[in-house]
Structure formats: C-alpha cells, structure tokens
TrEMBL record:
Residues 1-35 form the signal peptide. GO terms for cellular component: periplasmic space. Residues 50-265 form the SsuA/THI5-like domain. This is Glycine betaine ABC transporter substrate-binding protein. It comes from Pandoraea horticolens. Belongs to the bacterial solute-binding protein SsuA/TauA family. One of its GO terms (biological process) is alkanesulfonate transmembrane transport. Transmembrane segments: none annotated. It comes from the Bacteria. InterPro entries: SsuA/THI5, TAT_signal. Keywords: Signal. It is found in: Periplasm. PROSITE patterns: TAT. Pfam families: NMT1.
Length: 337
C-alpha cells in the first residue's frame, strides 16, 4: 500500500529472547547462534501488516536463534524507506510496490524483489457515510486519501470505472489524520488501509463501500493497488546470500503463525500497532499470508502475478504517478528462495 506503512518499535535480538518463543506461538527453530556471532540486518518497518512477519520473528527470538540480529528502523512512508535502501541504511524491507516502481522507472538497480509477503485486499478500502449507497452517490462529495498511495490508486480506479473522475473532490490527507477528518466532517469519505481502516470502519454512521477486491487488476491478476513486496538491497544481499536465505526461511515460519495462530500472534503485535486485541485479530485474519512454497509461483516470469505488477506499473503511468512503466521482471530475483 502506499509509499508508507506506519510506526516504530525496537527490540533486542539476543539469545535471551529465545525464552519468549513459546509465548508467541513457538516458531520452529533449528540450531542456536551466539549473539556475538549474529549477522546484523537493518530492517525498514512500520505498524503496517506487511511488517508483521519480520516483527514476530524478531520478538520471538527466531531470528536471533538463526544467527540474525535484526535492527528495526521505522519509516512513516514507503518512499522514505526506499530512500534509506538506496543510501545503504536498510538491508531488507517490506514496502508498498508503488514507491519501488517509481525508482524502477528511474532505472535504479539498487534493490530486488525477493518475496511477496501477503495480500491485504480486505484491509484497505473506501469508507463512506451510511447515506452513500454506491460510487455514483459520491458525486459532488469530498474524499480524503493519501496521495500517491495504494488507496489513492484504488479511488482513481473506482471513480474512473464509474465515469466520475471529474465529479468528486479528492483531498490529500495523511493516513493518521483521516479518522479525525471524518469525525470533524471535513470529508465525506476516506480511502485508507489498516489500522486507520479499522478505526474508521468502527465509527458510528460509517460503512465500507469498496475494498481492494473491487480493484480492476485484482479481478484478473490478484494484484491489489499497491501490493507489499519484500525487497533486499543488492550490494548487501550479494555478499550475504546465506543470510538472506536463512532470513526468508525464518520470516515465512512467522507467516505460518499468522495463518494458524492469529490470536497468539495478535498478543505480540498490539504493542506495534496500538490496535485493540479484537481489531488486531481481525486484521490478521483478513489478510492472506503467503507461504515460502508459494513464492516461486508468485514470482514466476512470465506468470500471472508478475504480469499483474506490470499492468499496475502501466496504470500508474496512465494516472501520472510515474513517468514510464519499467520492466518489472528485471527487478525480480528468486535465487534466494
């Protein structure tokens, strides 16, 4: 989603963290590693759900047990996160692909897409007041959305399909400010992702009009307006191939916990997201968590999902979000799987 994805929490990754494994679901671990021998990985995160696997693997001690000392850095936007990747400050990150596509369009070869963590098609959407029954009812109204985000692209796609591109006022509102803008009456509707999505949806008089499953590319390719991608900084990854492979193995063990033990995972994640326990469990269950085994199929080129990412790049050109569509497959690297 977005050039974004939300807040910060740092924890240490030492051997003492191993005692916490059972408390958060007992991720499968093999072997141990002394903290002094651990390889440090700088990770770019936030409270967005795309970062849940990395956060859980860190909090549980699973990374530490695998000899990985993950250092968590928080970024308010995906564009800021990608800037840190380019400058060498971040080694691995989950990011909304829109910011990555913008850099691809400029020819940057600093990073590669190595995995697709999730599909969040039901935790991002267009939320409206109860009086709005259809997209057509938004004519003449104000919609708040963070510009240059996945939610922005969703709104443009929905309005374009309904023939309302010039009949609705879009206001650029940072995601954290959208709940307040709805409550104060500054806007009539809001397009946003979790956790703000959950907060607005829970407000009296608000309802969901459309989520990412109504996005035109999702129907054919299973691609959301700004799917999460796990990227690595090439200069670092090429020197640490075994670490990247080990990282991905542990990372997707954490994803398995999100699929099979959402209640236990939620107990750790609420410290990151600030959600209530019920909202946190709902957010986990509403997302689809891909497995390590699914990655080769998802990232196959030619293949349906990568083709969808290419169509997404072309759509961004149509809506003047980027200047040209890069050949996305050139940034996909499955050698670490």
């Amino acid at each position: 989603m977005n050039f974004s994805r939300r807040q910060f929490l740092r924890t240490s990754a030492t051997m003492s963290a191993l005692s916490a494994v059972s408390a958060v679901g007992g991720l499968s671990l093999t072997g141990t590693a002394r903290a002094a021998d651990a390889i440090t990985v700088q990770y770019g995160g936030s409270a967005w759900l795309g970062h849940y696997p990395a956060y859980l693997a860190m909090k549980s001690g699973a990374f530490a047990a695998a000899g990985i000392n993950q250092q968590w850095q928080s970024f308010g936007t995906s564009s800021a996160r990608m800037s840190a990747v380019l400058s060498g400050g971040i080694d691995i990150a989950c990011t909304g692909i829109v910011s990555a596509l913008a850099l691809m369009a400029r020819g940057s070869k600093h990073f590669s897409i190595v995995a697709i963590p999730d599909s969040f098609s039901r935790v991002e959407g267009l939320l409206v007041r109860d009086s709005v029954r259809s997209i057509q009812d938004l004519k003449g109204k104000k919609v708040g959305v963070t510009f240059a985000s996945s939610s922005h692209l969703l709104v443009l796609d929905l309005l374009g399909s309904a023939g309302l591109s010039n009949d609705v006022t879009l206001l650029n509102v940072p995601a954290p400010e959208l709940p307040g803008a709805i409550q104060s009456g500054q806007i009539d509707a809001a397009a946003v992702w979790a956790p703000q999505f959950n907060r607005i949806r829970a407000m009296s008089g608000m309802k969901l009009l459309a989520d990412d499953t109504q996005f035109s590319l999702h129907k054919k390719y299973g691609v959301t307006p700004g799917p999460d991608v796990l990227i690595v900084r090439n200069a670092w990854a090429e020197k640490n191939v075994d670490t990247v492979r080990k990282y991905l193995s542990v990372y997707f063990e954490a994803s398995q916990m999100l699929r099979t033990k959402p209640e236990e995972a939620a107990r750790s994640l609420i410290a990151l997201t600030g959600m209530s326990a019920l909202d946190q469990i709902e957010a986990i269950k509403d997302a689809e968590w891909y497995t390590l085994e699914q990655q080769t199929q998802l990232l196959k080129s030619p293949g349906n999902y990568v083709d969808g990412l290419q169509r997404l790049a072309e759509m961004l050109v149509t809506y003047k979000q980027i200047d040209k569509a890069p050949a996305v497959r050139q940034w996909v690297n499955t050698s670490y799987l």
